[in-house]
Design brief:
Blueprint: E1 3-9, E2 13-18, E3 23-28, E4 31-34, E5 39-42, H1 46-63, E6 70-73, E7 78-82, E8 85-86, E9 89-96, H2 99-105, E10 112-122, E11 131-132, H3 134-139, H4 145-168, E12 171-182, E13 188-191, E14 199-203, H5 213-216, H6 222-237
Antiparallel strand pairs: 1-2, 2-3, 3-7, 4-5, 6-7, 8-12, 9-10, 9-12, 10-11, 12-13, 12-14
Helix pairs in contact: 1-6
Bound molecules: uridine-5'-diphosphate.
The site of uridine-5'-diphosphate has 14 residues, from strand 9, helix 2, strand 12 and strand 14.
Length: 239
């Protein structure tokens, strides 16, 4: 497999074409951003940790039967994924109140939610990723009612699998963001990344933030925190 021209450069990843039309070569970058790119820093070691964490998590999701785009980890910072048409949506699931939910509805951070809730956001930096509902998604032709139903079902399934995995390593899964894509035959696959950049992870014993809030809220150095998550996940692998 050969890395070819750059397809897309995002805030934390570069995507390249390969010699196979259905395979994309992903390179994880050391860049950290928050506040829709307004806060930006180069953090050595971040790309490698996120690539390794997300590779592990996607492998575990595959074992648990969640269809996804992950093919292979190539190196510390690179992986191969399936090329798909992406839904321009960010799908957020929340088990506990935090972040924008706490702010928007004035619910104290850390308040458990009676059941997991799902929110949709339009992936559009220039519009600041506005929240949207299922009618908006259908009206704008971003996904059909059937596709939305499938995406919600898969999101709840990912939550079940991840909650259980993280619990075993003393981590509470507070909330997370997923992205989905569609293969040529219409099959929906989980895509993008699952890492401390895209999840809120709290240490069960200390309540410590083991995620990007360390960076967003200037709580300290992100690298040892992500390293801790990676090492705990590795322990899980050897169980
Ligand atoms: N999230 C993400 N990318 C985004 C926005 C949110 O990965 O562009 C994740 C975030 O890490 C958290 C969850 O989605 O785990 C919910 O984020 P929230 O809406 O509370 O937003 P924030 O506090 O980041 O403004």
């Amino acid at each position: 497999m050969e890395k070819q021209e750059l397809l897309y450069e995002g805030k934390a990843k570069k995507l390249y074409k390969t010699s196979e039309s259905d395979v994309i070569w992903v390179e994880y970058l050391n860049q950290a951003t928050a506040l829709n790119g307004k806060k930006k820093d180069l953090i050595k070691g971040k790309g490698s940790l996120n690539n390794q964490i997300t590779s592990l998590v996607f492998r575990m999701l595959t074992e648990a039967g969640v269809p996804n785009h992950f093919k292979k980890k190539l190196s510390e910072t690179e992986q191969l994924i399936e090329a798909m048409t992406m839904f321009p949506l960010e799908v957020v699931l929340r088990n506990v109140s935090a972040g924008s939910f706490s702010k928007r509805f004035d619910v104290k951070e850390g308040t458990p939610l009676a059941k997991p809730i799902i929110e949709f956001y339009l992936k559009d930096d220039k519009l600041d990723d506005p929240m949207m509902n299922e009618d908006h998604i259908q009206l704008l032709g971003l996904a059909t009612a059937k596709e939305i139903k499938e995406i919600k079902k898969m999101t709840l399934e990912v939550n079940k699998v991840l909650q259980k995995l993280f619990k075993e390593i003393d981590i509470q899964l507070v909330d997370f963001k997923l992205e989905f894509g569609k293969q040529a035959d219409g099959t929906i696959l989980l895509a993008d990344e699952i890492s401390p950049d895209t999840c809120r992870l709290w240490d069960v014993k200390t309540g410590e933030h083991l995620d990007k809030d360390v960076y967003r809220r200037d709580l300290g150095n992100l690298v040892p925190v992500y390293q801790e998550v990676f090492e705990r996940l590795l322990k899980l692998e050897s169980i």
